[in-house]
User: What shape does this take?
Amino acid sequence: MSVHHRTAPATPLPAEWGRTPLTVVMPTYNEAQNLPTMAEALMALPLPGLSLLVVDDDSPDGTGTIAEQLAEKYNELGRTRMGVLHRTTKDGLGRAYAAGMGRAVTEGAAYVLQMDADGSHPADRIAEMLGVALATGADVVVGSRYVPGGTLSDAWATHRKLLSRWANAYASGILGTRVRDITGGFNLWSAQALRAIDLASLDSAGYSFQVEMKYRALRDGFTVMEVPIHFEDRAAGESKMNLAVQLESVAMPWRLRSKALRAAKPGKRAR
Ligand SMILES: Nc1nc2c(ncn2[C@@H]2O[C@H](COP(=O)(O)OP(=O)(O)O)[C@@H](O)[C@H]2O)c(=O)[nH]1
Ligand SMILES: [Mg+2]
Assistant: This one.
């Protein structure tokens, strides 16, 4: 992480706000090298209401076992600060998130934060995102690379930056939304919004989950806010982005739009 992006310690919140039940849902597939650092950073935040739920798809590198060991360590004092949801096969980022977010809400989270396990997303912005949600009543707070103040890793080549920008403009343009980082994966959700969205009925298996979730939230009338973040390159290991995931992301905005148009016809329930 380059020095000028490091910020002061997480913004202090009123003590009452810091106790808000907030679950960070973190999907993992082969993140053994990254998970311990991530868990440590989250547990050190001045947010006593925060807990971590790792959703592991039976990673061959043993991430699931490491997650269990970490949970044992952080749950030592009889408080559940970390849980692990083990799934048997790798069936996509979207499905992993839907399962984890559903469980977090069932277990009593008032807010759920989505976060990658690879060090790309800044843990020190979480308090601020929660603060924005609590202060404004917004049900969705996007950690945004594309609002003023948002930045991308210096390690990203120009073509990668352009591709990311383009992917955002593509999805937002087709769906007619004004969210500037609709593809981003660092987002805070109220439990109320997650219940309304009906996670079980999502169409996305993979990364297009990010777009579908925000689109549904907007259609259901929830307010989406964006706060700037710095997006860092992954710390270790490899990206799980592949061609199948990319094709789904190209097709999904069209699919969502035509579904919305069909639902808008008389006699059909809008979705
Ligand atoms: N459980 C689970 N996690 C996944 C899957 N695909 C990706 N992830 C995790 O989702 C996060 C984002 O994936 P990553 O490979 O970093 O995507 P990128 O940032 O777009 O390159 C990481 O924490 C991955 O380990 C999956 O199929 N199942
Ligand atoms: Mg990543």
User: Anything to note?
Assistant: The mean pLDDT is 93. The chain has one domain: 16-264. Strands lie at 22-28, 50-56, 82-86, 111-114, 140-144, 151-152, 187-190, 224-228, 230-231.
